[in-house]
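Could someone model iron/sulfur cluster with this protein?
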Amino acid sequence: YPYEEARPERQFAAVFNLNRCIGCQTCTMACKSTWTWGPGQEYMWWNNVETKPYGGYPQNWDVKLLSMLGPQEWQGGVYAGKTIFEAADPAKQTTSGFLALGYLPADEEWRYPNIHEDTAQGHSPHGARLPEHESWFFYLPRICNHCTYPACLAACPRKAIYKRQEDGIVLIDQSRCRGYRKCMEACPYKKPMYRGTTATTEKCVGCYPRIEQGQVTRCIATCIGKIRLFGWVNEESSPVHYLVHKAKVALPLYPQFGTEPNVYYIPPRWVPRDYLRQMFGPGVDAAIEAYAKPSPELLAVLQLFGATDRIIARYRLEGEAIVGFDDRGAEVVRV
Ligand code: SF4
Ligand code: SF4
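Reply:
Sure, complex below.
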């Protein structure tokens, strides 16, 4: 990967607990009413919640890319197959000199953001017939993953996309973008979207003005199911770091793509494991086991979902004691 900014000082990250999402789309509307209510943005849903296994925005985005990628090979816990960077066709090199396997979704594929909502049929997504009682579905909320190795950034021939060192948020400089849509083609999660009225591409901005003020994103703050937790994945004191790196209950979406996404998911317990493994990797079994029988420590961290980072930042572990501070940094409670 050719860019140095991959590992910023602090990395914006979130954990979404799929066991608790009720598909209410409050997050979707909170994002829409904040960022994409203008002309030319009508079809844009920077935050979307799709019903798996059949739903997708754009339609079949993941099935399409997985089939382009070929066999998904895992050796133990490590992906041994080709990432989107390795599987690219050298003949399709962009003018940025960068390669990633991808495709540009057609207009009609963006048309129904909530297609197949609540669809649970008695057969697996691979076509095999299952007994009726094995019907299942789950909601998959998605935003831009503010990837460690953003394919969008590397593919842009205008160098309009950058990753901020202070928080790892990936942004598109609207004054540089000329709407070539190379980012849309390269992003495996299909999160950059084209705006016809400005002839530029836009995407989730991680609510950076709120993050700068110590607040969490709109989609996280408004989540009805309290399924979302904001944090810094590369800071040991962050609960997100704990869930991802210590408890290992939260996993990246399609890690085989190779961009190292920074939104992590606690997989849903009722979904067939083979489906979950192709989506979150082989860590699924251990993650569900840990979530189903949580340690007291994990249970405590799971209580933080729905709390703001500002509240979490007021508490620190000092030896055996949990110490709480007020706005000015004065100690107010010790337990
Ligand atoms: Fe770029 Fe897509 Fe990753 Fe977002 S999810 S940083 S748009 S590659
Ligand atoms: Fe799921 Fe929360 Fe969004 Fe509702 S607001 S759809 S519970 S992520």
